[in-house]
């Protein structure tokens, strides 16, 4: 099937238009199924993804739905357990007979969902998959714009920034959870650090779900590194910083992979913390109308829902982007045929609030769009690359 340039551009940009009232969708709902970690250790972040999905589907229906039909999102609780996610995606496809799938939160659950999608030849757009080399299925598409080799590109981005600082670190301590994606990234960071001449003074791992960070904090303090690389997800970073505070230690520089964004900004110990991001709610990210509108709506809804973080950052933006990708594929093909959607996505770029994404690289990954942000004055601000930095923001060194 061929597509006109007009149709391709319209599809790619459709989800960037600010929500407007359109002719009410009618007919049988298009059912999109997914799971999220609504309970368990990943729930604090997954609730953000749930809110984003609710906002997107509501706005999508205000814009006329898809194919003139209303869209219904069916989301189930996978309890932060990949095996539960696998079972529930089986149910979504076989029992609930959903038309389309949306990925769950976190690498382990996404990998489980990917296996189910492959078994039934379903497209799977996902927002938080952290190990691109494991994405072997040709009909999966990432909104988490890491590029195909983040274990190399991400640490190099961090070290490029620090090399330009007034006091580049010479020693590094790497401590990491065994949670798959952050462990993968930390192992890569370890290798890149060695290649760039940083002296490793500590390498330590902990089991995901660990709550006793006292011994780890003591080891970090004894190592006395210039830079502490923390392979954390969710509240692990806060828990480690709290344990350090109890022994009167504050790391001079600390970099976090996927911290819980709200709790990190609200903790005094989180001041000047560094982390990865794709989007923050400041220019130039909010220069587009769709991004500014999404930030406004999310802020309001998150506050009303008493979420621990009411700001749009990497998690919320990746989630919104995943929905934009799926919508673009359906609109471009004017179809719910999974194979047609997948073929179109691999051949075309999609404009999103993260930027223009492509899916023609290894594992359907495109460019590494990760930036480095820092907590400054209780707010996350991008500091690198400087072209994406918050107005007036520069890297703050201790």
Structural description of this entry:
With 398 residues, the protein is an alpha/beta fold. It folds into two domains: 225 residues, Response regulator (Rossmann fold, 3-Layer(aba) Sandwich), CATH 3.40.50; 145 residues, 3-Layer(aba) Sandwich (Rossmann fold). The protein contains twelve helices and 14 strands. The protein is globular, with a radius of gyration of 21 Å. It comes from Ramlibacter ginsenosidimutans. It holds the Pfam family Peripla_BP_6. Belongs to the leucine-binding protein family.
List the strand order in the largest sheet. 7-6-8-9-10-13-14
Strand fraction: 15-25%
Query: Percent of residues in helical segments?
Result: 25-40%
Instruction: Please identify the structural class as seen in this structure.
Output: alpha/beta
Fill in the CATH topology of the largest domain: Rossmann fold
> How many beta strands in the DSSP annotation?
14
Task: Please write the string of helix (H) and strand (E) elements.
Answer: HEHEHEHEEHEHEHEHEHEHHHEEEE
CATH superfamily of the largest domain: Response regulator
Q: Report on the biggest sheet.
A: 7 strands, mixed
